[in-house]
Amino acid sequence: MGNTLTGDNKKKWIPRTSGTRWTENLYREHSDALYAYGRKLGAQAPVIEDAIHDIFVSFWEQDKRKEINNPKAYLFGALRNRLMKSYRKSALTVYGKDFESHNFPLEIDYESVIISEEIKAETLQRLSSGIASLSDSQREILYLRFNEGLEYNEIAETLNMNYQSALNAVHRAIKSLRTHLGETVSVWIILQQGLQ
Q1: How far apart are CA 77 and CA 82, in angstroms?
Q2: Alpha-carbon distance 162 to 154, whole Å?
Q3: What is the pTM of this model?
Q4: Phi-psi region of 106 (alpha: psi -120 to 50; beta: other; left: phi over 0)
Q5: Residue 168 has pLDDT above 90, yes or no
Q6: Would you list the domain boundaries of the chain?
Q7: SS (H, E, C) the chain
Q8: What is the Cα–Cα distance from 44 to 83, expressed in whole angstroms?
């Protein structure tokens, strides 16, 4: 089993058998998010830091052999449980309430959301106009590449052209869109979200 950690947590984690380096990578990748989650739960910084440390140490002490299919979810659950246990031991309250009924704070900056939506609408309008300026064959090639996820060799086969022609056609279509949209918009990001 490969022991490299991916951002998507696609690898299974078996404490002790996955190796120290892999566990260290797991710690580095998730410790900040775990800390932020602990703060959202209302715990104090030293308690959170101790809990995160204890989670990883306990794996080595207990020699667990069960597979953990989603390490991130497992770690978040372990942190929450460890903080609840710490709360019960200390009998302290969080925001005047017990830990289980803590009101999870989630702040939304509505002004930023509105501005973001306006920018998105303007960008989509410009994209729509840019797509309309493309030829039918350019629209088809972009659709095959970004909506259907075809690789260049598959596009070449589908449209009965050689590989280099497919590559050039996609490049020209993107260049045309970039010219129409300007440099402020990432054409790749928009195309990855799909063409209609």
Answers
A1: 9
A2: 10
A3: 0.43
A4: beta
A5: yes
A6: 20-101, 110-192
A7: CCCCCCCCCCCCECCCCCCHHHHHHHHHHHHHHHHHHHHHCCCCHHHHHHHHHHHHHHHHHHCCCCCECCHHHHHHHHHHHHHHHHHHHHCCCECCECHHHCCCCCCCCHHHHHHHHHHHHHHHHHHHHHHHCCCHHHHHHHHHHHHCCCCHHHHHHHCCCCHHHHHHHHHHHHHHHHHHHCCCCCHHHHHHCCCC
A8: 10
Contact call for residues 85 and 147 (beta carbons, < 8 A): no
Between these two residues, 62 and 46, which has the higher pLDDT value?
46
- Return the ∠ at Cα 105 (arms to 99 and 110), rounded to 5°: 170
> Which residue has 């973001």 as its token pair?
116
Tokens of 84: 């609840």
Judge contact between 174 and 181, C-beta under 8 A.
no
CATH class belonging to 110-192:
mainly alpha
Instruction: Give the whole-angstrom CA distance, residue 194 versus residue 192.
Output: 5
